[in-house]
Design brief:
Blueprint: H1 3-30, H2 32-39, H3 43-59, H4 61-71, H5 73-93, H6 97-112, H7 115-125, H8 131-142, H9 144-159, H10 162-183, H11 200-212, H12 214-245, H13 250-277, H14 282-302, H15 309-320, H16 322-336, H17 342-371, H18 376-382, H19 386-410, H20 424-433
Helix pairs in contact: 1-5, 1-6, 1-7, 1-8, 1-9, 1-10, 1-12, 3-6, 3-17, 4-5, 4-17, 5-6, 5-7, 5-10, 7-8, 8-13, 8-16, 9-10, 9-13, 11-17, 12-13, 12-14, 12-16, 12-17, 12-19, 13-15, 13-16, 14-15, 14-16, 14-19, 16-17, 17-18
Amino acid sequence: MDVSGRRWVVWSVGLFAYLVGVMNRTTFGVAGLDAADRFGAAPAVLSGFLVLQLLVYAALQIPTGLLLDRFGARRLVVLGALVMAVGQLLLALASTLPLAIAARVLVGAGDALTFISVLSVVNAWFPARQVPVLTQLTGLLGQGGQVLSAVPFALLLHHVGWAPAFVSAAALGVAAALAVLAVFRNRPAGVTAPVAAASWRDVRALLRSSWTEPGTRLGLWTHTGTQFAGTVFALMWGVPYLVAGQGMSPAAAGALLTVLVVVGVVAGPAFGEFAARRPMRRSWLVIGVITTTAAAWTAVLLVPPPVPAWLLVLLVVVLAAGGPASMIGFDYARTSNPGYRQGTAVGIVNIGGFTASLLVTLAVGAVLGIAGGYTPGAFRVAWTVQYVVWGLALVGIVVARRRTRRRLVEQGEVVPPAWRPLRRREVAVERAAA
């Protein structure tokens, strides 16, 4: 098989590993109310499961980026799949809170190793013009793991029981590890690997240069402002909100979560093509997604519950755009950093959205506990914590964009003003560069 065919096989296996990782990440959100009964957990404690998982995930992003630059993607994806499988198996057997917490820590650690490793293989195997679209497809098709947790996993959970459902998830993780071992490769044969940092001094210099690159910080704020709203909804509080706060059945709530995935898959390639063709206008797409998401939540929260079904569907459709928009953050990291530090830069970017998700998840759980538990009124108050993050992210994007453009001018690039529509000649230049 030639390189052009081989790259699609490698990507497909990496995508499968990421899809399984997303399924493992989201199973606890689907099982949230069951977990509350099984472990006797209050809302704040229940949110603490996901907070801890996201804390582990976010804390490991920079170490994962450094390990990726040094050891390559294949080892990290295999290790991540096996660690998540152990975590799900432990959760299947857990009957006490400490064991359940340890299980979610393992899931978060394995999850942290997977996504940016798969993205690095996309960068290595595909032409630069295709990378933005393939990055979007990787992120969005991988979100099909939410469908696996929302439909087949939920069916197992509610008809067979807690242990068989989580054992099945663990088995799928082992299958992903075996597939990666058999097929997945870091780069095409004959392509030289980037030189890795050889000492701690080199590692510190790598981190410093990645962080001081304005494009990396622009990617970080992009990921922060766009990713968290959909993540918090899908991973933790979406199903409890729809069931306890809006009176939907668990089946209907799970079906609505699949809309989140389907719409994202449709939007992803369009966003990727836009990023490839209009790199100087990517930030406006990001800002538009953040403001639209905030507006949709405002409309929902202003209506006394139960909210009309069409408005909830509209909210989920808008939330679905956050995933594709967050992937533009990785595109900023790729186009702003040389190959030998792209793993580290992508790790820095990936911290943003998951740190925001962690904080918002914790805040929603805390507000629910104060406001009376799983009630429509309490949920209505709790969701307002999101506005703080949206505001900070928008300020960060505007500041980082200005500095990124200044850096491009210093490097001799022609940079049109951010506020002005591109002229025909500038569009032609962008297309030629893409």
